[in-house]
Every structure is written in C-alpha cells, then in structure tokens.
Design goal:
- The complex is a heterodimer.
- By secondary structure, chain A is of the alpha+beta class.
- Chain A has helices spanning 2-29, 70-76, 130-145, 307-326; strands at 46-49, 117-119, 178-184, 187-192, 197-202, 219-225, 228-234, 254-263, 266-274, 283-291.
- Chain A has a domain at 46-51 and 133-312.
- In chain A, strands 1, 2, 3, 4, 5, 6, 7, 8, 9 and 10 form a 10-stranded antiparallel β-sheet that branches.
- Chain A is globular and about 75 Å long.
- Chain B is of the alpha+beta class.
- Chain B folds into 2 domains: 1-30; 42-251, no CATH class.
- Chain B is built from 5 helices and 11 strands; from the N terminus they run αβαααββββββββββα.
- Chain B has helices spanning 2-29, 89-100, 102-105, 118-121, 249-257, and strands at 42-46, 126-130, 135-139, 145-149, 164-170, 173-179, 184-185, 192-193, 198-207, 210-218, 227-235.
- A 9-stranded mixed beta barrel of chain B has the order 1-2-3-4-5-6-9-10-11. In chain B, strands 7-8 form a two-stranded antiparallel ribbon.
- Chain B is globular, with a radius of gyration of 23 Å.
- The chains are: A alpha+beta, B alpha+beta.
- At the A-B interface, strand 3, strand 4, strand 5 and helix 4 of A face strand 2 and helix 5 of B.
Chain lengths: 327, 274
Amino acid sequence: MMLKRARSCLRFAATSLLLLAVATLIGAAEPYKAPRTSWGDPLIEGVYTNNTNVPFERSANLGDKAFYTEQEYAARKNAPAVVETTTNPTDVHYQTADFDLDPEQNPMVRNLRTSILTQPANGRMPPLRADAQRRSDAARAAQQAHAFDSAQNRPLQERCLLWAHEGPPLRPVGYNTLVQLAQTRGYVVLMTEMIHDARVIPLAKSRPDFGGLKRWQGNSWGHWEGDTLVIETTGFSDRVTPRGSGVPMGPEGKVIEKITRTGPKSIRYEFIVSDPSLWDVPWGGEFPMELTDQPLFEYACHEGNYGLPNTLRGVRKEEQTRQQKAR
Amino acid sequence: MRVAAMARAVICALALVACADRALAQKAAIPRMSGGKPDLSGIWQALSEADWNLEPHSATQGPLETLGAIGAVAPGIGVVDGGKIPYLASALAQRDANRAKRRTEDPEAKCFMPGVPRATYLPYPFQIVQSDTGVMIVYQFAGAVRTIAMKTHAEAPVDSWMGFSNGHWEGDTLVVEVTGLNANWLDRSGNYASEARRVTERYTLMDADHIRYEATIDDSSVFSRPWTLRMPLYRRVEPGARLMDFRCVEFAEELMYGDLRKPGTGKSDGSAGK
C-alpha cells in the first residue's frame, strides 16, 4: 500500500515537472507583450537605430543560406557597414570608420541574417520584367546624356529631395541610422534622421480617401493587427523609382510594412514590395531596430548642400576649359 | 411684491446655473489626455499676414512685381506686442538690408527650414503629435520637424535650423523653451534674429479648435529687450485634412542654382507657368 502510494506520488511529481517544463517552453515561445499607450495601442514610440553591416542583398555565393552561425556572426560583426554585392550601381555604403564611426562608437544591432532581403529565398532582387528593363535602360540613358545640365538633372538624393533609404520601404543606411517613431490617437509618425522626413501615417479601419494624389513617399495608412502595426502605401510620385528599377511604380505598386515590438528595447520591421508592372514576383525582407539614447540630430541636407552647386560649378568650368582649348 | 422678488431670485439663480454650465462646458470642450493635460494633437494653421511682416503694415508691392497682385504684400494689423520690434539701431540697419534683397535672400525663398517661431505662422499647416510622454511637431513646409523634450531637459548640443526644444506644463499651457537656433529671418520683410536667441513659446487651448500662441524672443545682440508676438492658431477641421507634400527644394533650385545651368538648356526667365 505504501509502495503504491509512493509510486503514485512519483507519477504525480513527474507529471507536474513535465507540465512545468512544457509550460516554461510555451512561455518562452510566447511573443513579447508590448506595453500600451493610454488609449490602448501597443507602445512603439521612441528613437531607434537600425545600424547594421548586413547587406541589403545576399552575396550570391551564399545561395539560400539565410543566417550566419554564431561563430560566423562573431567573425564579421564588426565589419564595416558596406554592401558586398548589389544590383544597384548607385547604392553607396560608406566605410563608416572614415567618419570616425567605428562599431564601438556606433553599435550595430544584432542580426544573424545574411541579407536584409528574405524574399525571394536567395535574398537577391528579382529581375525587372523585360519591358520594365527596356524603359529603365532608356530612362537611364536619357538621364546620363544630360546628367550635369542643371540641378534638376541630378538624382533626387543629391538634390536633398528624397533619400532612397527613407522608403517606404525603410532600409538601413551606412550612417545617421536613427528612426523616430511617434504616436498619438489616430496617427503614427515615422521620421528618418536622414533627411528629417516625417511620414505622418493615419490609422484607420479601411483605406482613407487620398483624393487620387500621388506623394513622394506614397500615401500611407495603417492599422493594428494584434500587436503589429501594418502600413499600406500606394500612390507614389512618378519621380520616385523603387530600388534599382530606374522607372516609377505602376498603378498597382504597393508597399506593405509591419512594425512589431519584440522586446523592451527592440522592434522588428518587415516589408514587402509588389508591382506587377515591374517584377513578376514580390520582394521583401526584415531587420531589427533597437531603442537608443543617442541624440537625433537635424540632418539639414538642403540647407548645407554645397556638393550640388560645386558639382555643377566644376562641370561648367570643365566645359569652359574645353572650349578655350578648342579655339 | 413678494412674487416679484421671488421671480427675480429665480431668474438670478437660473442665470448663475447657466453661467456655471457654460464654464463647465468650455472646460469640457478642451480635449485632454488621459492624465488630464490638454491634448494639442491635430492639424493647425495660423491665419494672419504675419509671415509677410510681423509689424503692422499696409499693402505694398511684393518682391516680384511681374506676379501682379498675386505677389503683393497683403496688409496686416501686426502680431507684435506694442506694434514695433525693439531693434538695436545697428540691427535695424541689417533688417532694412535684408528687406532690400528679400526676393533672393529670404531663407523661405530658398526652402530653408524656417526655425522658431516662423514655422508656426508660415501660411501652411502643421501637425502636433502629442503622446503620453512627448510632443512632436511636423510642419508641411520644407519637411521641418522638431521634438519637444518633456521629460529629460538638456542644453542644445549643437545649433540647428529648428533648434532644441524643452517643454513643460504651466497649468493648461504648454511652455516650450527653444535654444540652439541658427540665425534666421522671422518673416518675408527681413525681420530677423541671431543664433543667440532664446524663444519661449506658450501654447494654450482656447477651446477645442483654437490655440492661443505666444512667442517671446530674447536676443540681446539684436533687440533692446525681449519682445512677444501672439496670434490664434486654427484647427484645420475640414474632412480629410492632412499635411501634404511640400518638398519645396525643387521650387528653389532655379533661384539658387540657375546660374550654374548649362547655357542653352532653358529655364531662363523664371516663368515656369507660361
């Protein structure tokens, strides 16, 4: 009788331990529950950094390898923030040490991924559709034929009109990597340090009427799906060309972004871009961002733009010199 | 006689109740955060001629007469306490020099960020985004934006166009101390302040759709004493009101870089609308 009771106790204890272990495992797998604003939305506001040396596109030799091992990550985590390979010839990443921005001063966000792009599975941009590629080649040739005629012929970034990493979709950039999220009832603001563009995103149950107007960064609206902020953006200006395309989006072009708080100091940013006039398949990816106490400085791009007039001044001088030699 | 006295008493009592009700209604009409502080969130705009000239002024020819009446300086009653900005004599000469070359040198014409307080009374909307812990103001013009630190106040680490803002509440008034501002013009008439200025702004909700805005400018290198401008701000109440794109850089390029254009490539007379 005693033995039977002891067995019963042991069974109970073993079962309890098993249940406890399962409960612990389940608990560990539970997503982080974000704190709330006073009006009940998940709290995501703050100043974040997305500083990373993970390239936007994956090196071709890595194939479908989406993550580095811990050992591989440790070996490259302090590598400068450069893109090893890219399909975009104008994509510039800097050796951050050149600006005294070594990894110690400008910590990178831990990310074991081998590329920001996760879709397609090879982590590389899908090719443009053939007709889009022809339009892209023609647009590029026309631009290059008059590249230095005037300020208006220079790229948007050089004119301080819009920087490519500001998106949407947002992309990590080699320096000045801060992103500020602000929240109030009915709106979320996403502001990029460079070049101080604040995207005011209305929150709604359905797409608001944007009056058919296009915007440089498109018309964004958002809604909460559980603890994830989902932002849909359409209606991009014809003067904005998605990454590497050289041509504007078509009428069905769309960007979906998802922002999810993943911990007390971290959020996950996901994006997916689709446009049947440019690509046969959508492309997208994700990266983490971390809260930082670094000050967010005003990046007064246009006000301090000496590069653009000096570039034009130099070209005009070269033209004069050539004309004088020809006489 | 007694009936008349009772009637008077009843009428007085009703009047008092009505007054109290109105006072309560006015207080209740101000939107508030859950913690009780006024909620300034919304899209606002100044409706005045302050950006043409802060001081009282009659209508005059604008900086570009080829625009006709479209470019005329609209008359305004002024927004400065006492009417005149108290310039030091040397600074007044600089104001007049600014005014003489306003067509090309006004930072607004160049699409530079307008600084504080000018960003408030440009003739364009701005949006206050107030959360439980902070305030951000997004301006339509030139993509200007600033964050008002409500919790951790600090000195401006560096000068900037929109400055460094520390805010606190005095009753129902949001008081913002702005320092670290670059020297900048205050209007299209060449009124200006130096990088030494300290601006104290006060935002008070008058009701749900109006803010009483005041800004006191203390800059002893330009003015003989601190002075104050004040004006109401109006909520943009129309359905669908939102900040629009006004990336004005592209409209300033010909003004700023037109002399560097390749000869013979157009855009020579500035008449883009022809």
